[in-house]
Amino acid sequence: MAKAAAVKSQVFVWEGTDKRGVRLKGESRGENIGKVKAELRRLGVTPLKVKKKPLEIFSSRRRIRPKDIAFFTRQLATMMNAGVPLVQSFDIIARGLENPTFQELILSIKNDIEGGTSLTESLRKHPLYFDDLYCNLVQAGEQSGALETLLDRIATYKEKTESLKGKIKKALFYPAAVLVVAGLVTSILLLFVIPTFESLFKGFGADLPAFTRGVIDFSQFFREYWWAIFGVIILAAWGFVQAKKRSRKFAHFLDRMSLKIPVVGDILRKSALARYARTLSTTFAAGVPLVEALNSVAGSTGNIIYENAVYRIREDVATGQQLQLAMRMTNLWPNMDIQMVAIGEESGSLDDMLAKVAEFYEEEVDNAVDALSSLLEPLIIVILGVLIGGMVVAMYLPIFKLAAVI
C-alpha cells in the first residue's frame, strides 16, 4: 500500500569509523538523526557525529548534480567494458573531474574499494547521490559477475531519465521566465514611468479617460504598497513549496490537478509512463524480482498518482496476479502499454517490451514539448502586448485627446 504520510527527509552531515577504524565522513538523507545513525550502522559505519546540514546560501563547494552521476556512470561503464580495473577506473575518472566536491566523493569511494569494501557498500555510504535503485542494480551486477553490463544499463537509464527531466523543465521554464520578465517590466513602468506621465497630466487641467485614470490609480497603489505585494507573493510561493513538501494530501491534489491541465497534463502523464517503463525495464533486465523492482519503480514516476498506482500493482503482483492485469485495474495505463506488457509476459521478453514503451513515450514527450513551445510563443506575445501595450496606450490616450481638441 502507498505510504500513509510523506517522508520529511533532510540532509545530515556525519563523521564515523568503519570496521577497520578508518575515519569517514559524508552526507546522508533521512527523516531524523536516529534514522541516519541506524542506516550508517547497517552499512558498517560507527557514527561519531551526526548533525543537520546547515543551509548554505553562499558556498564555495560546487553541487553534485544528477547529470554528473549519469556522466560518471557512463565513464565507469565504458572503462570497465574496455577492461580497465575498477580501482584504476575510479582513479582516472577522479583525475579528470573539474568539480572538487565530486572528485572528493569519487576518491572516497575508491579508497573504500581499495580497503576491501564492495562497490555496492561503498556507494550506499553516499545515499544523497546513489539511491537504493542505483545501489540495487550495482549489487545485482556484482552478484551476477556482469558488473560492466549492468553499469552500461544504469548509465543508459540515468541518461534517459535526466534527458526526460530536462525536457519537462524546458516546457515549464520558458513561460515562467517570460512571465517573470513581464512582471519586472510592468513593475518598472508602474514605479517609474507612469508617475512621470501623471505629473505631466496634472498640468492639462482636464478630466482623464477612465482607462488612464485606472492605470494611474493602480500605479499609485503599487508605489505605496509594493513591499506588501512582493511580500505576499514571496510568502505565498514559500508556503506553496512547504505545503507540497510536508503534506502528502496537498501534493496528491496538485499532481492530480496538474494531469488535467491542457497540453501540460499530457506531457506530465507521458513522462510518468516513460519513467515507469524505463525503470521497470532496467531493474527487471538486471534480474531484480518483479515485486522488488516495482517497489523501486514507484518513487521514480515523478507523480504521486502514478506512485500510488504502482504500489497497488505491486500488491496485486505479490498475490500472484499478472502484471498486465494489475496495470489494467488502475485505469491509468493506456491499452497499448497493457498489450505490450502482455506480449512481454507471454514471450518472456518483458524488459524489451517495456524498453520499447519507454522509447515511444520519451519521443512523444519530446514532440509534445516542441509543440508546447510553438503554442506558447504567440500566446506569450499576446499577453505581453496586452499587459505592457495596454499601459502605454493608457498613457497616450490623453495626449491623443488633447491633439484632437487642438
Describe the protein.
This protein is mainly α. Among the domains are: 10-52; 66-160, Type II secretion system (T2SS), domain F (Receptor-associated Protein), CATH 1.20.81.30; 264-368, Type II secretion system (T2SS), domain F (Receptor-associated Protein, Up-down Bundle). Helices cover 73% and strands 6% of the residues. It contains 15 helices and three strands. The chain has helices at 33-42, 66-81, 86-95, 100-114, 119-124, 132-144, 147-201, 210-246, 248-258, 264-285, 290-298, 304-318, 323-330, 335-347, 350-405, and strands at residues 10-17, 23-30, 46-52. It has a three-stranded antiparallel beta sheet, covered by helices on one side. It is globular and about 90 Å long. The termini are far apart. It is found in: Cell inner membrane. The chain crosses the membrane at residues 172-194, 225-241, 379-399. Pfam families: T2SSF (PF00482). Residues 72-195, 277-398 form the Type II secretion system protein GspF domain. Keywords: Cell inner membrane, Cell membrane, Membrane, Transmembrane, Transmembrane helix, Transport.
CATH superfamily of the domain at 264-368: Type II secretion system (T2SS), domain F
Q: Tell me, briefly, the overall form.
A: globular
**Cα-based radius of gyration, to the nearest Å:** 28 Å
The CATH class label of the domain at 264-368 is Mainly Alpha
Overall helicity: over 70%
Order of helices and strands: EEHEHHHHHHHHHHHHHH
Estimated structural class: mainly alpha
User: Number of helix segments?
Assistant: 15
CATH architectural grouping of the domain at 264-368: Up-down Bundle
Q: How is the CATH topology of the domain at 264-368 named?
A: Receptor-associated Protein
Please give the oligomerization state of what you see.
single chain
Question: Mean pLDDT, as a whole number?
Answer: 83
Model regions low in confidence, pLDDT < 50 over at least 5 residues: 1-8
Largest sheet: 3 strands, antiparallel
Distance between the termini: 78 Å
Kindly estimate the percentage of residues that lie in beta strands according to DSSP.
5-15%
**What's the number of extended β-strand segments?**
3
Instruction: Order the strands across the largest sheet as they lie in space.
Output: 2-1-3
